[in-house]
Design a protein that fits this description.
Layout lengths: L1 H25 L11 E2 L3 E6 L3 E2 L4 E7 L15 E8 L5 E8 L7 E5 L5 E9 L2 E2 L10 E2 L2 E10 L51 E3 L10 E6 L32 E3 L2 E8 L2 E11 L5 E5 L12 E3 L2 E3 L4 E3 L4 E6 L2 E6 L5 E7 L5 E4 L5 E8 L7 E8 L19 E3 L6 E8 L6 E2 L1 E2 L4 E2 L1 E2 L3 E6 L18 E7 L8 E7 L8 E7 L4 E6 L5 E5 L5 E6 L18 E3 L2 E4 L6 E5 L5 E5 L21 E7 L2 E6 L13 E6 L5 E6 L11 E3 L2 E6 L4 E5 L4 E7 L3 E3 L4 E9 L7 H6 L4 E2 L6 H9 L12 E7 L5 E8 L4 E6 L5 E9 L8 E10 L15 H30 L2
Parallel strand pairs: 1-10, 3-11, 12-44, 23-27, 52-59
Antiparallel strand pairs: 2-4, 4-7, 5-6, 5-8, 8-11, 9-10, 13-50, 14-15, 15-16, 16-17, 18-21, 19-20, 21-22, 22-23, 24-25, 25-26, 26-28, 29-33, 30-31, 32-33, 33-34, 34-35, 36-37, 37-38, 38-39, 40-41, 41-42, 42-43, 44-45, 45-46, 46-47, 48-49, 49-50, 51-53, 53-54, 53-57, 55-56, 55-58, 58-59
């Protein structure tokens, strides 16, 4: 019914716009007149759908031929006193009235649900109305009019409207056909900050709030962006040394973006992780769409974030096409067209400074806090700047200028609101968590202001931190009370000379967290009151936990939990409402171990968050300044965020010194792997199944051999190396075998000896038209075979199907054969006994015939020898 409602509203809006336009065309330019005019009115009424089933809701629209002259959204010129009379089949009458029609076009919308079978009568009455407002029509009369419609209500209901077509069950690509609305639940974009919290961070992985993410180590494609891996030869400082991959201060593939199925990143140049071309490739295939030398544009600007704005006006609906890749330079924004890479002429200047979050329609919201007090009075202005007030919000019906022209971002009208705050004395700033990466701003909810520090002896920069108390003030952002001070609290310095900071918050659960660097303690406080909730809560004192001191302890909140990882090599999960430790990943047995043995000095592989998406946490091994060659067997890991279960691992190294920068969208994870200098994209790929039969026709009672292959059709299998090594295709393997198999196919590792194939189901349609499953088999090296003896004669159609897995989408194929009846068995001739006389005659005749044959043969020889 939601889709039906949307359709109805679309029709209503179209009517409003038509009427509004007509009204504008009728506006005269003369002044009021005498005598007053009497204008004929035309009432209109629509009841739909017609017919309709009993108990199903219809849309009723009423309007008069034109909008009331000069009616506008910002005035009170309106049609008055609409009346709708509804007469049921049994004669019962209902009357609905509207003293004032709120819509400026004069269209009134109403929903009605009939409860009886039969004919309903709907009558719309518009009474005579005098124009009481000033202007040319003052005191004119708009005459009464009415309209009647009949609605047929039947017992049989109409089919329900389609809200969306179902989610995909086969391999899919963009663009997503516009009627597949529900696919938004699996599709997503990675637009960078502020849309993806923590995106591009060196300390916490970005948190993707939308769509799906891979549950398998299956590789879609790889693509080098740098010379990588082993250099070769003996002219290196260390035997087997590899190319430098930017670790730790020149990382590659940072702040990459994904929009509409394209992956955007900057290639490295020289020793820098940036400076090369900016490139767009297909997320599913790695195929290059475009590249831009940003220096050649005259700006040298590289995109910082993606922008997809939902443009909703009476005339326009939907996200503006192509989207923008916005490059920032000080207080200026420039933009590239995301589909073509062309630098647009859009030039946004004088951007205010502040803290950023994403708006509900894709707006870029920036909050600025300005002190306008004096030495004795603390007064602040808090303002919300909205990008859609500056560009992407065009009056009238056109949006053609959205990409072009210069706009002043600080011009009047750029802000949604400006409120004055009365705060306790001192200097206040908008609070942040996780080393300044996460602004403490929750849309339409709350904002935290901070003052001072919260104790400790060494800051991140090495400077001494004051031990004075810190203060926090919570400001309401709820629509009806923006700027209201909710509470102010003072927090004493951390005990034990700890360096304390706000590490994380969860606005949904209403908690923010202090963390102490030296002791690893976490403390929970209420967002509603600022009061203590729980703590201290510590990670377990394992033999590796102390290594976390080597980097700021950087927890983050997601899914109602507080997570943290680091040089300890372990991932900890605490309940963020209670501080209770729920689970630890990395210090268990097989499937829950990050143990490195003698490979690292930590005893564990240091683990940092690559990114978070779809209920999964992706971890990757790394350290601050790795030697070359790098540690062996570092892993990219996918962990279930709810219970800590290991979903998959595969060899991989992180590309940032204390975190990483993986990006997730549309069910695919793209990361940079410093082991070989390539981008790896993981996700669910297409598969191909073939089936054949050696003998198309067999005889009844014989067996038939059904055989075929199941191969991986992902784009990476057609790359030069893979195509050369697997000329007949890369076999598809089970989910459990993916890690070792992908390392063999793409990372030049030994072929695993314990690879399991995928299961194939064999079904037939027999000569009687019956569809039945006859068995299943498992592939080996992508090949399967199945021997079966048909049980009846006739033609058979064979269906072989692979139902898919977390690694591959399903595939199927078919063939056919026939079973003929067996040839009848020949019977032996009967033996007849003849009387002696007859037997003599027969024998003599036979002797004569043989003699004649012999004489003929001799004559033939003599003739050939005659001269």
């Amino acid at each position: 019914m939601q889709m039906q409602k949307n359709k109805t509203m679309a029709i209503l809006i179209a009517l409003m716009l038509t009427i509004s336009t007509a009204s504008i065309l009728l506006l005269p330019t003369t002044t009021a007149h005498t005598p007053a005019w009497k204008t004929t009115s035309y009432a209109y009424l629509s009841v739909a759908p017609d017919p309709v089933g009993v108990g199903q809701t219809v849309a009723v629209c009423m309007w008069v031929d034109t909008a009331m002259p000069s009616a506008a959204v910002d005035n009170d010129i309106r049609r008055h006193d609409y009346k709708l009379t509804i007469i049921a089949p049994n004669g019962a009458t209902e009357v609905k009235t509207w003293d004032v029609v709120s819509d400026s076009t004069g269209v009134q919308f109403y929903r009605y649900t009939p409860t009886q079978v039969g004919n309903y009568t709907f009558k719309f009455d518009y009474p005579q109305q005098t124009y009481t407002w000033s202007g040319v029509y003052q005191n004119d009369t708009f005459l009464a009019s009415s309209r009647t419609q009949t609605l047929i209500v039947q017992q049989e209901p109409l089919p329900a409207s389609i809200d969306s077509y179902p989610l995909p069950t086969e391999y899919w690509t963009r663009p997503i056909e516009g009627q597949n609305n529900y696919w938004y639940t699996i599709a997503s974009n990675w637009l960078g900050q502020p849309y993806i919290i923590g995106a591009g961070s060196a300390y916490i992985g970005g948190e993707q709030p939308d769509g799906s993410a891979p549950t398998s180590a299956h590789i879609m494609w790889t693509k080098p962006i740098d010379y990588g891996g082993v250099v070769g030869g003996s002219l290196t400082a260390v035997p087997g040394e590899g190319y430098y991959q930017g670790l730790s201060y020149n990382p590659r593939f940072t702040n990459s973006l994904i929009m509409q199925g394209l992956l955007y990143y900057q290639e490295p140049w020289g020793n820098a992780g940036t400076g090369g071309d900016y490139v767009a490739v297909d997320l599913r295939t790695g195929q290059e769409h475009w590249r831009v030398n940003t220096t050649a544009t005259g700006t040298s600007l590289v995109p910082s974030f993606g922008y997809l704005y939902s443009f909703e006006t009476p005339n326009q609906h939907g996200v503006l096409p192509n989207g923008l890749l916005i490059a920032t330079s000080g207080s200026t924004w420039r933009a590239y067209d995301a589909r073509t890479g062309v630098l647009t002429t859009m030039n946004i200047t004088n951007l205010p400074s502040g803290s950023d979050i994403a708006g509900p329609q894709g707006e870029f919201l920036r909050y600025t806090l300005t002190n306008y007090g004096n030495s004795t009075v603390t007064k602040y202005n808090l303002m919300q700047w909205n990008s859609s007030n500056v560009f992407g919000k065009v009056s009238g019906t056109g949006v053609g200028t959205w990409y072009s022209g210069t706009a002043n971002a600080s011009a009047p009208g750029s802000w949604d609101w400006n409120v004055s705050l009365s705060l306790p004395p001192g200097t206040w700033t908008i609070g942040t968590a996780c080393r300044g990466l996460v602004p403490l701003i929750s849309l339409d909810n709350v904002l935290l202001l901070t003052q001072g520090t919260f104790g400790g002896h060494i800051s991140d920069s090495g400077a001494t931190v004051t031990s004075d108390p810190g203060n926090i003030t919570a400001i309401s952002l709820k629509p009806n009370e923006i700027g209201r001070v909710i509470w102010t609290q003072t927090y004493q310095p951390a005990p034990g000379n700890n360096t304390r900071f706000i590490s994380a918050w969860d606005p949904t659960n209403g908690v923010f967290v202090f963390s102490d660097k030296e002791s690893f303690a976490n403390w929970g406080y209420s967002l509603a009151t600022g009061q203590y909730m729980w703590g201290p809560s510590y990670p377990p004192n394992t033999g590796s936990v102390d290594w976390n001191y080597m980097i700021w302890y950087t927890p983050f909140c997601q899914y109602g939990n507080l997570y943290s990882a680091g040089f300890s090599g372990l991932l900890y999960c605490f309940d963020d409402l209670t501080g209770e430790l729920k689970w630890t990943y990395g210090n268990g047995g097989p499937g829950n171990s990050t143990s490195s043995g003698f490979i690292t000095p930590y005893g564990y592989y240091p683990e940092f968050v690559e990114c978070v998406a779809d209920g999964k946490i992706y971890l990757v091994g790394n350290e601050h300044s790795p030697n070359s060659p790098m540690y062996k067997d570092s892993q990219l890991r996918c962990i279930n965020a709810s219970n800590g279960a290991e979903l998959w691992t595969i060899m991989g190294w992180g590309n940032m010194m204390s975190g990483s920068a993986g990006v997730v969208a549309d069910g695919f994870l793209s990361v940079f792997n410093p082991y070989d200098g390539q981008i790896y994209t993981y996700g669910k790929g297409p598969s191909d199944l073939t089936v054949s039969i050696s003998d198309d026709v067999i005889t009844s009672g014989s067996s038939v051999m059904i055989k075929g292959t199941v191969t991986d059709l992902s784009a990476g299998t057609n790359q030069a190396e893979q195509a050369a090594r697997f000329p007949h295709g890369v076999p598809a393997v089970s989910d459990a075998s993916q890690s070792g198999w992908m390392e063999y196919v793409y990372m030049q590792k030994p072929q695993p000896t314990n690879v399991a194939g995928v299961s194939v189901t064999i079904s037939v349609i027999d000569s009687n038209g019956n569809f039945r499953e006859i068995g299943t088999t498992t592939t080996t090296d992508g090949f399967f075979s199945f021997n079966w003896k048909p049980d009846i004669e006739g033609q058979y159609t064979v269906y072989a199907s692979f139902s898919g897995s977390e690694s591959y989408w399903p595939s199927h194929a078919l063939t056919s054969f026939a079973v003929d009846a067996a040839a009848p068995t020949a019977s032996p001739h009967p033996v007849t006994t003849l009387p002696p006389t007859e037997m003599y005659i027969v024998a003599a005749a036979t002797t004569i015939i043989v003699a004649i044959v012999l004489v003929g043969a001799v004559l033939a020889v003599l003739i050939r020898k005659r001269p």
